[in-house]
Amino acid sequence: MNRLLFLCLALIMSCTATPTQKSMDSKKNNEILISESQGGGGEKSFVILHNEAEFQKAIKGNTTVIELDKEPVYPAFPKNKKVVLYNLGTFTSGEHKITQIKNISVKDNVLYVEVPQVESGGMGIAVMSNPWFIFTVPSNYQFTSVELKYSK
User: Fold this and answer.
1) In the beta sheet, which residues pair with residue 112?
2) What's the whole-model pTM score?
């Protein structure tokens, strides 16, 4: 009877197990290159940027603040990492700029990006915002969609 129970448990565990890619040292393997609270797309979406030209075009196309007296300085395109542009969609109020990535993982071809949840304080003036950010993940991560997970 114990063998039968053990066999059933092993069968269930093997059926539900899915491969998961998780960064061993998330501070080294991912970083936010640019994060803005305006200028992104109206819908949640992501694009993998493959080279310096796409990277610079994404930055210049999404950046809304321009300083006239000096040339803006952009980070260099990272080598040996995937670079992802993520549009968070449209919000009517609150601060939704991503400032930190706590963890990243891939499960079932979905890249999960864990970010801190920021509480908005009370009622404020309703202002439309389209936040976006560009971040890196290890080059061996394979995914077809990106999902943000908010945590405290």
Assistant:
1) 105, 147
2) 0.73
